[in-house]
Design goal:
The complex is a heterodimer of chains A (195) and B (309). By secondary structure, chain A is of the alpha/beta class. Chain A has one domain: 3-Layer(aba) Sandwich (Rossmann fold). Chain A is 31% helix and 27% strand. Chain A is built from five helices and eight strands. In chain A, helix 2 packs across helix 3. The longest helix of chain A has 19 residues. The longest helix of chain B is centred in the last third of the chain and has 20 residues. Chain B is an alpha/beta fold and 309 residues long. Chain B has two domains: 141 residues, Aspartate/ornithine carbamoyltransferase (Rossmann fold, 3-Layer(aba) Sandwich); 147 residues, Rossmann fold, CATH 3.40.50. Classes of the chains: A alpha/beta (195), B alpha/beta (309).
């Protein structure tokens, strides 16, 4: 398989699996800049604000936003943490697949800080619910906001809405939104996949 | 792999190398949790665990109880000395009575080897062996290996010597299984009377000279003389044992390298190791205790995730 370039393989998969491109690399870039500006508008110098990316896939988005804010908008320092919610999930022993934990790394206090939780896709809202519980272990933030790159509206199981959203998507339950990042999959692209 | 290959933790003998790695990786996450200001996660809020101890224990019992509480499980404790066991109830009856109160998991220490295995065949709950006679003490071996991995980076390829009463020690047997499984080289050292006859068949070396053993090893795991299990006299006097097999600072300083000193506790200071060794930088005895909670959280979490609703 290795002799085929990545884009050929991705295109073959696109045809076989019935996947549709939701956002291209260029569109993602524009959205990331808009989200960064919206964060900047509300948090200015980020002195009292921390970004927390949710494991496993929200961390790329958090790092990307931090990079844009620092390199293009001259924000001096932003605290960025990663939060694993495995031990706080409400589907322990309920899902067929065993839950696999990943690393949590929050090297700063969130007491009285404004926390922006960052995840790639907001779907049922259960991950965010678990994240809110998990956050309590690190202190009492003064405010918590939510940023999601893709907001799958009409799919929520809980009354949770994002403060910042990249794109709203109407996808049915049988479909899956897959966000891919240059750092991980070699390309920034978002697919809507028929499962 | 993200699931254990077993439904009970009865002994290291029944584990695969990948199980040990999964337990260690999960323990890494729990170690981070227990170092937070709020040291608790809600994962096991709908699990009830019974700690059944037919034999005395401080460290293991506390460590298990703490691990269970840090995972938000409901915990009931049971000591045989204060129970109907003294009135003649059998083990299966005792446990079945506890299980009919809707208990999901049993942590058991028992003076008879194989008690956990026996129980796992007769009751429906998940069983964790917290020591069965002179047979196995799997969580102790896991936390020992985990502590070596933490201090030296890896267990594979390391030389580990276990010193003391190997014959009566469940810690020694579980450690031998765990260390061999992970690719470490193991030697046992002690008076000939306290070394099992066919111990070499487990793939370990035998050394009766302590100095030679320490010169060879990276890690020395010092065991206590279990006076309560010594039915006959295995060595002339404690003083003579200490002279032959006790580790002191002078002996350690005379080696050309710095070895790691471990002890599963309880320590008999001045017998198997002197106080200055137990409290030195080379000793990771208290790290072992801290890691014990993380390892037990990992084992309980991974076994609980296999209990279906």
């Amino acid at each position: 398989m290795n002799e085929f370039p990545t884009f050929v393989l991705l295109n073959v998969r696109r045809i076989i699996m019935g996947q549709k491109v939701l956002l291209s690399s260029k569109e993602i870039n524009i959205i990331l800049h808009r989200l960064a500006c919206q964060l900047l508008e509300n948090h200015l110098d980020f002195k009292n604000t921390v970004l927390i990316g949710l494991q496993p896939r929200g961390i790329f988005l958090a790092q990307r936003l931090c990079k844009i804010l620092q390199e293009e908008y001259n924000v001096k320092h932003i605290d960025v943490g990663v939060l694993d919610i495995t031990f706080y999930r409400d589907d322990f022993r309920r899902s067929d697949k065993p839950l696999e934990a990943t690393k949590t790394k929050i090297n700063f206090l969130i007491e009285d800080k404004n926390v922006v939780l960052i995840d790639d896709v907001l779907y049922t809202g259960r991950s965010i619910n678990a994240a809110l519980t998990a956050l309590q272990s690190f202190g009492r933030p003064s405010e918590v906001e939510l940023l999601a790159l893709i907001d799958r509206r009409f799919s929520r199981h809980l009354p949770i809405q994002p403060n910042y959203r990249g794109r709203q998507v109407d996808a049915i339950d049988g479909e899956k939104v897959k966000v891919m990042w240059k750092e991980n999959e070699g390309e920034d692209i978002i697919y809507l996949i028929n499962r | 792999m993200s699931e254990l290959s077993v439904n009970h933790l009865l002994g290291i003998k029944y584990l695969k190398e990948s199980d040990i790695q999964l337990i260690f990786e999960t323990a890494d996450h729990f170690k981070e949790v227990i170092n937070r200001s709020i040291k608790k996660v809600p994962s096991l809020r709908d699990i009830t665990i019974a700690n059944i101890f037919f034999e005395n224990s401080t460290r293991t019992k506390l460590s298990f109880e703490l691990a269970e509480k840090r995972l938000s499980a409901d915990v009931i404790n049971f000591s045989a000395s204060q129970s109907s066991v003294t009135k003649g109830e059998t083990l299966i009856d005792t446990v079945n009575n506890i299980l009919s109160m809707k208990v999901d998991m049993v942590v058991m220490r028992h003076p008879n080897p194989g008690a956990g295995i026996f129980l796992s065949k007769h009751v429906s709950a998940s069983i964790i062996n917290a020591g069965d006679g002179a047979h196995e003490h799997p969580t102790q071996a896991l936390l020992d290996s985990y502590s070596i991995r933490e201090r030296l980076g890896d267990v594979a390829g390391k030389n580990v010597v276990i010193v003391g009463d190997i014959l009566h020690s469940r810690v020694a047997l579980s450690n031998i299984f765990a260390l061999k499984l992970q690719g470490a080289n193991v030697k046992v050292c002690g008076p000939k009377t306290l070394l099992p006859k066919y111990v070499e068949s487990l793939g370990v070396g035998v050394e009766i000279n302590l100095r030679k053993a320490l010169e060879w090893c990276d890690v020395a795991n010092m065991l206590r003389i279990q006076n309560e299990r010594l039915d006959i006299s295995y060595f002339p006097t404690t003083r003579e044992y200490t002279q032959q097999f006790g580790v002191n600072k002078k002996l350690l300083d005379s080696l050309d390298k710095e070895i790691v000193i471990m002890h599963p506790g309880p320590i008999n200071r001045g017998v198997e190791i002197t106080s200055d060794v137990a409290d030195s930088k080379q000793s990771i005895i208290l790290n072992q205790v801290e890691n014990g909670v993380a390892i037990r959280m990992a084992v309980i979490y991974l076994l609980a995730s296999k209990i279906k609703q």
